[in-house]
Amino acid sequence: MSRAGGDGAKPGLQRKRAFFRKGHRAEMLAAWALRLKGYRILAVRYRTPSGEIDLVARRGALVAIVEVKARPTLEAAMNAVTPAAQARIERAADLWLSRQKRTAGLSMRFDIVAVLPRRWPVHVKDAWRGTL
User: Fold this and answer.
1) pLDDT category, 20, cuts 50, 70, 90?
2) Looking at residue 103, what is its pLDDT?
3) pTM for the structure as a whole
4) How far is the CA of 14 from the CAs of 1, 35, 82, 104, in angstroms?
5) Is 24 exposed, middle or buried (0-12, 13-18, 19+ CB in 10 A)?
6) How many domains does the chain contain in total?
7) Is residue 4 part of a domain?
């Protein structure tokens, strides 16, 4: 007998897959929104031992380290990026930056893109100040 979810996976695994798909869709939507604002996407889901960066985007001499959150409200998205998450993202950004060849003259900031239901993604520039 198959489960109501279709693929026969356990409910916990189905839920995890659903969150993964939702996050992936949110990141792709955020990337397109940034492209339309003139950013070039340098990395998507950049993984380091310290953590993962959702998007690395560049416009001119600015590199934006972007955390993408799909939440029902902007406030919920902002609150989801906790100080611990910020520290993890900053460590990952430091590793990303150290692996780049041409970073002289570039400035960096930490942004959040909130993907909200039935709305265009909200880009919060300079969402927090890093310690880099």
Assistant:
1) low
2) 78
3) 0.84
4) 17, 32, 26, 45
5) middle
6) 1
7) no
